[in-house]
Structures are given as C-alpha cells and as structure tokens.
C-alpha cells in the first residue's frame, strides 16, 4: 500500500513538475517579451527564438545525461584499469582480442546476426503473405504477433518446457524430446549440445521477432500498386513468380528496415542467454559477457566498458544508415 | 474454366492449411505454458502437457510387506496390501524390471517355490506361501497405473501468496506506470518543437534522436549507476524511473515527431494567426490530435518496461522485497528448476498483463510500429 502511494505521488509529482515547467517557463517568457505593446514584433521574434529550447529542454537534458554522457564515460573507462584509477591505453582492447570468451561471444553474435534477422524476416514474409489471403487472417496475425508482448524471460520459461530433457526411458515432458523419441531418436539435452545449442536459443528470438516482421511487411505488401500485380498475372505469371519477382522487389526497402531493426535487437540480445544458459556451453554473447565483467565477482569496469564500446561500434553502421534515411525524408 | 476454378480452390486450401500450421507452431509454446500452469504438481513432472487431457500413465514399483507383516490364514502364510494410492488405477503389473507390465490385474504368478502373488484391479495384492516367509525386504511389484487428468487453480493461490509473486507484481506495477507516463509528457513537447517550430539546429537534433534510438543501453549501465550513486539517488525506484525515462525518450520523440509532422499545416497556421500562443496550440490542438501516436508509444514503453530484466537488475536491488517479476522468474529458473508448477504459474502471471494490453490495444501497437519503421525507411 505504501508502495502504491509512492507510485501515485511520483506520477503526480512527475506530471505536475513537467506541466509546471512547460507552462511556467512559457509564461515567464511571455512576461519578459510580451507579444503586444510597442515592440510586439521584435518581442515575438525574440520569444520564438527561445521557446523551442524551453520545449526541448527536459528531453535534451535526459538524452544527454542518460545516453550521450554514458557513451563518453564508457569510452573513458574502457581506456582505464578495472576501477578507473589508472590510464592503460588500449590494453583492455588488446586483452579482449586474446580472450577466448570474447572470441566465442563475437563468433556467436555474428551467428545470431546471420540467422535471426534472416529467419525472422523470411517467416514474417511468409506469414504476411499467407494471412493476407485468408478469411481468418487477422486472428492468425494476432496469434503470430503475440510473442512480441512476452518478455524474453517469460519466453525463456516457455521454451524451457519445450527443450526439457529426461533420461532415456523416462516419460519426456519436453515437447521436442517427446517428438524425437516418438520418431525413434534418442533424447538430447538440447541446451548443452555444442554448437547446436546456439540455434536453439536463436529460435526463441525468431519466435518473438517474426510477428514484428510480419506486421510491417504485411502493410508494405498491401501498399503495392494493384496494377503491377494484375499485369503480371495477365502475362501468365504463377502465384510464386508474382510473389518473388513482382512483390518482393517492390518492398525491398521495407525488408531492409525490418532486417536492420531486428539486427539491433540481436546485437543487444541478453535476457534469453542470461536465463537459459547464462553463456555456458559455448553460448556466450557480448551483452552477457559484459554483464559478467561488470556485475559478477570482482567487477572490472575497464574490460566491461571495452565490451560495451565494441557493442556500440557494431551498431554504428546501422545508426549512420538510419540517420541518412531519416534526413533524406526530411528534405 | 472449370479446371481453373478447381485449381483456385485447391490453392485456397493449401494457403489455409499452411497458415493454420504456421499459427499453430507459433501458438503452441505459449499454450503449453498456459496448460501447465493449471496442472497438478505430480502430473506436471510425470507427463507432457499435451498428454494432460487424457489419463496419465505412470510406472513405478512398490515393495510388499516383509515377514513381520505376514499372517497365518489356514495353512498358508499371507502378506496383503495395496500397490496403488490416491485415485490411481492399475493397468498392468510385473515382478521383474525387465518386463514390468507382464501381468494383467487379477493374474496370479509364482515367484519362487510355492510363493504365489496375485494383484487385483483395485491394487490389492496377496502374497502367499506354504512355509513362513524369510525376507528382510519386501518383494518388488512393478506397476503401471493411470491417473485421471487433474487441473487445479491451487498453483495460482500458492504462487501469489506464499511465493512472494504478489509483492513482485506490485513492484513491477510501481516501476512501470511512472516510467510510462513521464517520458510521454517530456517527449510530446520536444516532438512538437522538432516538428513545428523553426530554429537553428533542428535538423541536427532530429538526426541525433534517430541516432540515439539504437544506442545499446548496456553502454549506459555502469556510468549511470555511478552517477546515481554520486548524486545520491542510489538504487531504488527513483533511479529506475529516471533511467527508463531516459532510455524510452528517443523512441518517444521520434514516433511523436513523425506523427505530428503529418498533422495538417492549415490548422496550426490559422491558430497562430488567431493569436494563440504556442503553448495553447500544443495543448488544444496538437495533443488531442496526436492521441493515436501517444497511445502507441505508451504501449511500447509499457511492454518494454514491464518485460525488462536488465535495467531492473541493475537499478533496483536484488533482495526479495525489491525484485520485479522478471527477476523472480529468473531466480525460479535458477533455483527451482524442478518445481515446474511454480515456474509455469509465475511465468504465466508475469506475461498475462502484457498479453491483455497487447490484445486490447493491438491497433495502436501496429500503427506505432508502422510509423516507426516504414517511414524511417
């Protein structure tokens, strides 16, 4: 109950604070430069130069403090020793290059980067195409989209019920092992099966992201001008040809957006690995490795930050691409 | 023409079946969790959830009584008892591990010189011998039993009261609501400025917001935790609210700006001509018109904060009182891997709220996704 009031009062204070700031600062501005009287025109011009910054102020403050400053601070820390007391140059980075776990993480992250966006987009495309053509398509879409709302941890629990292993001869309570034994195979401990366990973790993320890809791609497919499709059909193209040669090329831009968005998610993947294998059995990824260095045992902020910076460097190309696209659109 | 129509209906069927299979594949994992969360503790560990609607078969063995339990009956020495318990019914039985289901209920077999064993359908057994028994440990009887399907809401009661998930639920709610409401306000003003005010640096700021969208928040953890400690916020709700506000802002500003740019210029211009102040325009015109975008961001942020584990682990403490639901789940997966009913039920409670929000507000979620991605390309 105490908690409840704390939350309510925070919302109240937060909302009230924001409103007070925006309203109050605007009023002060209008008092200093009143938009009437002898200098009205001049005043309005001056006020309009200041006002945007009043509107933007809190957002800029938050963005700087919570996103820009940390990147700079991490960069600084990555060049220092474990506690940040001594400058060590690029030692942390050279150490990373030689570290077995880091190489494993890089290799796994690259695997994730190849597999997850590709499969999610592919399944998303198939799902979009299929559900757009049937009567119960909207229900189908909802159900495929549903995993989006489920936390990575929740998904971990859900998939634990699929990958669970029981010794041979016992009743398998994991769906996958049950099917395998039914087909005459031996039950496997999927999550310790190097190197395939990586793929079993990836499937969880594909399961979550496919819905996202489907929603976006389905909208893009519906946006394709009818004439191009009709023309192709009149020319005798089969449904598969229409799909592959007419529809897909026209939504290439959207596919790229979906692909990059999922790529970003994949680069940051943490929770799934954290709760399902915790990076054991050759499944380590960068985000979890960084967590290990920062919060387990005796923390090493230098090395942890170096890994964070590597992550940052990996997302930079996509960041640049996104900014260029956004600017093109503004123009 | 007939041939073509036939072909077409075949195609429709194929599409329907493929779609059905795909949807099934995507739904089954969640369905499994849902069914499991209502299952009885023993059944969940002994059979798959897909078998839970039919009677579950269990195998095992029991030992008969020993010579102490024997009674004399006529000329025979007899040991009696029952191999089943609860609502189990006996399907088959045996005396050796090699063939544990060799006999039907009601059969009689001779174990060794003169010892006769009968097991009836109700599970009662009768072991007889003409000579007094001499055995320290009872004979093993292997059983195959059936248990009728059993569903219970007991798991939910137990989890919400005894396992402390109720507390975690409240914690999650406490984290989520302010962390959803506050960024919306801040972002709405900023987005308006970026969309409709003329000032130098606007293009760069917009580009910066797009850039910040992809910054991995892992980069921020250590610097921010230190910053919070230095300015005296420390670990706690205030810290996590601020952190989520910061992390959610780029998406909020970006989505809202994209939406507001598309609002009709004439409405805003004419309001300006009529002498409305920017603040009035924002409050009376922009804010109501932007409701769909506000709603879609609210859903994003709600889902993201509710489902988050990393930020909560770092910015809140890890004691039992402070854990959010994802944290509790993570602990359960680590320590109570064997207590399936607790795990399944806790997981389902934690995903129930996002699922409700998802199904109720799907329209806005989709709209937001489209505004955020398709336009961005």
Describe this structure in words.
The complex is a heterodimer of chains A (331) and B (377). The model of chain A has no long low-confidence stretch (mean pLDDT 84). Chain A folds into two domains: 2-78; 93-330, MetI-like fold (Orthogonal Bundle). Chain A is globular. The longest helix of chain A is centred in the first third of the chain and has 39 residues, at 40-78. Chain A is 75% helix and 0% strand. By secondary structure, chain A is mostly helical. Chain B is of the alpha+beta class and 377 residues long. Chain B folds into three domains: 2-52; 56-147, no CATH class; 157-373, MetI-like (MetI-like fold, Orthogonal Bundle). Chain B is 57% helix and 12% strand. Chain B has helices spanning 2-36, 41-46, 154-161, 165-196, 202-212, 221-230, 237-261, 265-273, 278-289, 291-307, 310-315, 325-335, 340-360, 362-373; strands spanning 56-63, 71-73, 76-82, 89-94, 108-110, 116-119, 124-129, 140-147. Chain B has a five-stranded antiparallel β-sheet, with no helix packed on it. In chain B, strands 1-8-4 form a three-stranded antiparallel β-sheet, with no helix packed on it. In chain B, a hairpin with a 5-residue loop joins strand 5 and strand 6 (116-119). In chain B, helix 10 (291-307) crosses helix 14. The longest helix of chain B is centred in the first third of the chain and has 35 residues, at 2-36. Chain B is elongated, with a radius of gyration of 33 Å. Chain B starts with a helix and ends with a helix. At the A-B interface, helix 1, helix 2, helix 4, helix 5 and helix 6 of A face helix 1, helix 2, helix 4, helix 5 and helix 6 of B. Chain A: This is Maltose ABC transporter membrane protein /trehalose ABC transporter membrane protein /sucrose ABC transporter membrane protein. Chain A: Pfam families: BPD_transp_1.
